[in-house]
Structure formats: C-alpha cells, structure tokens
C-alpha cells in the first residue's frame, strides 16, 4: 500500500505541443533561485504538496537535453507521512500556481507511464529509480 505524491499542473510548452489541456502530472520541482538544491526541493515540496519533508536524499543528477539546453536536474527522494502535512499545498500564491496534489498507489503511478498519463521525463526517471532500488 505504498503511495507517491505527485502534482498535476498546467504547462504551456505541453499545450503548444498538442496536450489539449496543458495539464501535466509530475514530481515536485522548482528553479534553484540561488538556493542549494536540497533547500529548493524542501521548499517546493511544501509549496506544491503541503508536506514538510525533513529528510531528503539526493539520488542522482541528470542533463535532460544536453544538446540544446544547459539545465541540470538534481533528483531527490524523501519519505512522508500524514503528520508532515502542514498545509493544503497547491503552489505559491505569488507565483499564480494552480497545482492539484495527487497521492497515488505506487503501482498505479508506474502504470500511468505505460498508459501515457505520465509523460514528464523527471517523473518517469524518479518512479523507475524507486522501482529499481526497491524504495517502495
């Protein structure tokens, strides 16, 4: 009965590329904004999901498209429980985010990769990492 927390939010580039609603299911993420990656993922997790995670673990780094962009992603995992919920999440109001929080059974999330419901590269990589490493 292990679950994962993901988000669903509007992403203009996906809309422009044929995603009719522009909505994308993805793992928490955010720009570093001069923070270190660990502080960033803690902040973004709380803003987006409402969970205040205390112990995050960096698992790897990856260039998503090194032939065309300089972006590097830092991937983290963290355990959570109901007692860590400090607010409803949904994103930062000042950033005009409208984020739906999804708590899904892990096996369902993995299946959503097969069905095409999850198309976000970083989310696919994290879910597959969790499966390969037996985290869930």
Brief synopsis:
29% of the residues lie in helices and 24% in strands. The protein is an alpha+beta fold and 136 residues long.
How many beta-strand runs? 5
Instruction: Tell me, rounded to a whole number, the average pLDDT.
Output: 93
Task: Name the helix and strand elements from N-terminus to C-terminus, one letter apiece.
Answer: EHEHEEEHH
Ends apart, CA distance between termini: 9 Å
- Across the major sheet, the strand order is 2-1-5
Number of helical elements: 4
Measured as a percent range, the helix fraction is 25-40%
Poorly predicted regions:
none
Specify Rg, calculated over alpha carbons. Answer: 15 Å
User: How would you classify the helix and strand content by structural class?
Assistant: alpha+beta
Tags for this model:
29% helix; two-stranded antiparallel sheet; single chain; 136 residues; 4 helices; three-stranded antiparallel sheet; alpha+beta
What does this structure look like?
By secondary structure, the chain is an alpha+beta fold. The protein has helices at residues 12-16, 37-49, 106-115, 121-132, and strands at 3-10, 23-26, 56-63, 72-78, 100-105. The strands form two sheets. The chain has a three-stranded antiparallel β-sheet. The chain has a two-stranded antiparallel sheet with strand order 3-4.
């Amino acid at each position: 009965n292990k679950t994962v927390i993901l988000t669903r939010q509007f992403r203009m580039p996906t809309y422009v590329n044929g995603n009719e609603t522009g909505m994308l299911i993805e793992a928490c993420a955010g720009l570093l904004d001069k923070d270190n990656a660990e502080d960033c993922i803690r902040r973004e997790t709380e803003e987006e999901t409402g969970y205040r995670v205390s112990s995050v673990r960096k698992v790897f780094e990856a260039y998503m498209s090194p032939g065309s962009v300089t972006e590097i992603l830092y991937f983290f995992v963290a355990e959570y429980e109901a007692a860590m919920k400090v607010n409803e999440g949904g994103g930062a109001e000042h950033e005009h985010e409208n984020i739906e929080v999804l708590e899904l059974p892990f096996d369902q999330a993995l299946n959503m990769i097969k069905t095409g419901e999850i198309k976000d590269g970083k989310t696919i990589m994290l879910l597959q990492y969790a499966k390969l490493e037996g985290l869930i």
